[in-house]
Design a protein that fits this description.
single chain, mainly alpha, globular, 182 residues, 0% strand
Length: 182
């Protein structure tokens, strides 16, 4: 059960309602995470603006792989379910690639390097080794792209933390455990 209040739609300020409408138009429904965040319109705006801006810094499958890797590293069941849904429905990712993303890998070697690096950023709190940095560079990422990987990682840390604190009720199909199907 969610621990933060989900405000009734009529209590959400007009500006935040417009953001929720935009999210709903994009996804086909308004996820509980966004409904909860709407209780603080400034935070809702920060989250959705950050998501919109960072949607342009790396290709979608790489962002999905990072989202899955970061959410798995943080044990965020809500985000795992959401990113599995989005990666499947909108990202064209296979079940195998989604499962690999959760363990910091991918069917694509370059995406695997980004997902693995994102997990290392999370696990080390940003204190990655020279070898880890060399590894992501060796996969073909430039320094501006590495900055993008870090920024996207932090974006998902933010939503992981919000959903882990809240224990947001999962309102989409849940993600299976790594190594299982379904």
């Amino acid at each position: 059960m969610s621990r933060l209040n989900l405000p009734p739609r009529e209590d959400v300020p007009a500006g935040a309602q417009q953001i929720l409408d935009n999210v709903g138009a994009q996804l086909g429904f308004v996820p509980n995470m966004f409904k909860t965040i709407a209780s603080n319109p400034a935070v809702l705006e920060v989250v959705t603006t950050l998501q919109g801006t960072l949607s342009r810094v790396l290709d979608a499958k790489t962002r999905h792989s990072i989202a899955l890797a970061v959410s798995q590293a943080n044990g965020c069941s809500y985000c795992l379910a959401m990113h599995t849904y989005v990666a499947t429905e909108f990202g064209g990712m296979s079940g195998e690639d989604i499962e690999l993303g959760r363990v910091g890998s991918s069917v694509d070697p370059k995406r695997a390097a980004a997902a693995r690096f994102a997990q290392r950023v999370v696990d080390s709190r940003g204190q990655v080794s020279d070898a880890e940095l060399a590894g992501v560079r060796g996969a073909g990422y430039t320094d501006p792209q590495i900055l993008a990987i870090v920024a996207v990682t932090v974006q998902f840390l933010l939503t992981n933390f919000i959903n882990n604190v809240n224990q947001t009720n999962v309102d989409i199909p849940t993600a299976s455990s790594v190594g299982t199907s379904g």
